[in-house]
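Progress against Task 2.4 (sequence-to-structure conversion) is shown through the following example record, which the project officer requested during the mid-term review.
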Amino acid sequence: MRRHALGLGALAMLLAACGGNTGDPVASPAATTSAAASATESVEENPTPTPTPSPTGENIAGCVTADMGEIFKYTRDGTATKGVIMGKGKVGAVVSYERRGTVCDWLPLAERLVAEGRRVLLFDRNDVVNPEKDTVEMARRLRDAGVEKVFLIGGSMGGRQSVLAAGLLKFPVAGVISVSGGTTQPGDVTDLKAPFLQVTADEDSTAPLELAQAVYQEAKKSADRQLLVLNGREHASALFTAEQGDKALQAITAFVTKHSG
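Structure tokens generated for the chain above:
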């Protein structure tokens, strides 16, 4: 009898152990509801971003569309590409972007110039030899469109394109602006007579400050040579969205205004 009672006690202890807290706790209905609500709030606070649709009509690099200006096509040495003329006015600029850039990178400057009553020609470089010939062709096109004062603006290799194009054109340009012109050499500007602005960052390893200073010293024939050095490491169009971006944009637009009279 005592042995039977002991067996029943052991069984009771075993059942209690199985139904106790040694396993995973069972969530109460209130806890389940609270967790579900938290998950819903988290989803609402961090919604899945809606992808920006790609333009379906005619465009350049997916960022310049026909409603922004007159898109045109041109061909050189068998390579066809596109360009656009934005804005209105008798003063305009041809923009030549850097080696790994696109027309999209220069929209901050283009849009500011257009807002100030300038015309801007952006073009998709065809990457064949002598790219300065593209800049020459674009300057002629802008001139034919009724622009009386043409500025040449470029970043990095596009800056050198602009400098070289100024010497190839049959009409004098209103000014040349080189942003991080790391490939421009002092000899390129020896005979440059047009107003000349260089904009560069002091820690840009791709466009050493010493080179920009040497180019500045050589541009003795320029009607107005200027060198703006900004703090930072950003190169070419990346300057426009950096901490010093507004200062760079203001310097360029002020230079254009100064030499538009």
